[in-house]
Design a protein that fits this description.
Blueprint lengths: L1 H5 L4 H8 L3 H11 L4 H36 L3
Length: about 80
């Protein structure tokens, strides 16, 4: 899609064709415009891994907080 825009197709036409807003297209261009396809795929993989790890840290933090609460109560 970015290559189509580089070839001269109007951005509004591309956005309509692909069912997205012009603002989204410009966001993608800013984010992925200077990348090759393999670099964009690698970025997507890293973002997915980062999202998964953040979720894991949040879950473990909740578990840790729960254990501290249970441990702090006097039996």
């Amino acid at each position: 899609m970015l290559k189509e825009a580089e070839s001269g197709v109007p951005v509004a036409d591309l956005a309509r064709k692909h069912g997205m807003s012009v603002a989204t297209f410009h966001t993608w261009r800013r984010k992925y415009g200077d990348m090759e396809v393999n670099e964009a795929k690698r970025l997507r993989e890293l973002e997915d891994e980062n999202r998964r790890l953040k979720r894991l840290v949040a879950d473990l933090s909740l578990d840790n907080q729960m254990l501290k609460t249970v441990n702090s109560k006097k039996w």
